Amino acid sequence: MPAAAGSADPDPLITGVQDWQRYLGDGVDKRPYGLPSKFEKHIVRRDVGWLTASAESSVNFTPLHELDGIITPSGLCFERHHSGVAEIDPGSHRLMINGLVDRPLVFTMDDIKRMPRVNKLYFLECAANSGMEWRGAQLNGCQFTHGMIHNVMYTGVSLKVLLDEAGLRPNAKWLMLEGADAAGMNRSLPLEKALNDVLIAFAMNGEALRPEQGYPLRAVIPGWEGNLWVKWLRRIEAGDQPWQTREETSKYTDLLADGRSRKHTFIMDAKSVVTNPSPQAPLKYKGRNVLSGLAWSGRGSIKRVDVSLDGGRNWQTARIDGPVLDKSLARFYVDFDWSGQEMMVQSRAMDSTGYVQPSKDELRKVRGVNSIYHNNGIQTWLVRSGGETENVEIG
Amino acid sequence: MPAAAGSADPDPLITGVQDWQRYLGDGVDKRPYGLPSKFEKHIVRRDVGWLTASAESSVNFTPLHELDGIITPSGLCFERHHSGVAEIDPGSHRLMINGLVDRPLVFTMDDIKRMPRVNKLYFLECAANSGMEWRGAQLNGCQFTHGMIHNVMYTGVSLKVLLDEAGLRPNAKWLMLEGADAAGMNRSLPLEKALNDVLIAFAMNGEALRPEQGYPLRAVIPGWEGNLWVKWLRRIEAGDQPWQTREETSKYTDLLADGRSRKHTFIMDAKSVVTNPSPQAPLKYKGRNVLSGLAWSGRGSIKRVDVSLDGGRNWQTARIDGPVLDKSLARFYVDFDWSGQEMMVQSRAMDSTGYVQPSKDELRKVRGVNSIYHNNGIQTWLVRSGGETENVEIG
């Protein structure tokens, strides 16, 4: 804890003069677009390498253990793509709306930016987040177990406004969203969701979408799995049934123990994770400490987060701090004293519908262990007496 | 507006195949820390060059006309410094609390991060924002007339918690905050404000403070002029009266018409600006358009923003969209049709205390024209029939 000042043996870092007090720093013309300090260079998104065949069809994970608050910095956002990042000239980008509509339309980016805008902070979570953990503790770090998520403020146009321009026919029940990347990523979206809260966004965290987040245009499907949030969006087709695309048949279905598959499992259920301590962020000090974590629900807002330090025997309610918004990350803290005892740290989220995050074993009883997707079970970190922290499994 | 699809003369940008659909894009390992698209390279902070003697004691202005929503991207935040950007090794940084306290203390960065954290979104506005406009319309762009402002989510520790550790003596009434930059920037802060809502922040928008925003530690003084938000914070001294530093005597006082000066004018009154259209962002199309702008108040939250298109003769209430938070920017819109007529565009903010943003002439009647600081008068943009937009003065 803080040292007493003015002692007989003063801290040379207080009494001395540092270089940054002695010399002028860089001037303003050196940083037209700013970057983090050179002392933060280790804080980056990371691929695990072995997960996919190539970097063009892979994942960069958000370093959750190095972040705080509820905004994910745009430079550290999780990314997943299927044919690499499309580098699109916005002047040549078009969005077409066709299919079961009265007036098939083609929008330029300027056309879209002349329509009424809305601003919303939403989490995006990949359905495969924590997917490696179905069969037991695998990955040593919340960046890898839970880092396929980000939370940014979007600016865009309500999809309902765009569809109203085109005029939906009465038999339209589903939409197909298609990307302009080389994969031509596409997914089917029920019309009811599309007319409820879906945005077609061109900005994130105040500026244009980043290329790896779909620049210049992406779908924002609040609370639903990230794969539906089609990036580099070029076409929306209205139809009377789902398209049965690769990404909703071969992928993004949940294989159950009896061999049947759950399909169209869109909603991301309530979930949470302790980001500090965690394997990449061990405890360094005894005494006063801050336990920190994130909670979210695709069904609404977070109402409460409980934390256990003894593997689920005793629970205390965490302090949620910062805005608590619908379908957005919430930040929670437990301020505690650590005497060096071994701990089994867990967190459990409750949302505005009353849903309580289940244990991994409760989840496995219903879903088996064959799935990759929709693992929202309670995470356990073992904190050893030296502070080192590991991913462990206690059901 | 959007073109009809499927016509006899189809858009080759829809029917053709673009390079980004034909070839793989970059893989995930190429962007451990992401950056904007190369098509957004023109969106940068800018110095005006002539304002100060050197780049190390100058200003970079936020490009408000290119942003949306209420979050300022960290890479585009306004910056002002007096001896350049201190480049501080956080392992060697210390915060001392001394003066009229029972226990003078020295905190490491780790000490501070082990104390209870809070997360808040606040605007920071330089007292000199719009300062050139006291004597008439000067600068052609809201980046330069209003861009000494940013709005980010901070994570930090309540200053009250730090002061409680040190134990304030009963005669302590003021604090002096001092930076570790070569200027040793310092300001006096009334204790009442310090104990109310001041934060000592180490993170912004989810990640560590940027160097030009005070990495690794800065003061956050909600609603008060930016010069008080001491960056690279190294010392807080408690005393019984203000220190009368250069920055609160020679600077940051408001010279009135009768030769007296207003001193300790800390609070930033309610203000607003239309960011689009504006001189750097002229109207490009007749028909459907989006007028967009920002409003804020150092006394509370924004309750209403009115917009005039005819120089203040007629007003309409704008649509505020996105979170409306205390001492944070609020985003407003007016969706309108433009027939090509000349317009005099204005916005007028009202805050939760009932305060209404004054006209520039109303302000001059009270304050004269000698000041640099605290100009929150209503801004007027003249939109010509071709869409070109200019900074003009109509009182």
TrEMBL record, chains A, B:
Names of required cofactors: Mo-molybdopterin
Domain Oxidoreductase molybdopterin-binding: 82-244
Pfam annotation, one family: Oxidored_molyb
Domain Moybdenum cofactor oxidoreductase dimerisation: 265-379
Coiled-coil positions: none
Molecular functions (GO terms): heme binding; molybdenum ion binding; molybdopterin cofactor binding; sulfite oxidase activity
Domain of life of the source: Bacteria
Organism for this UniProt entry: Afipia broomeae ATCC 49717
Stated name of the protein: Sulfite dehydrogenase
Single GO biological process annotation from the record: sulfur compound metabolic process
UniProtKB keywords: Metal-binding, Molybdenum, Oxidoreductase
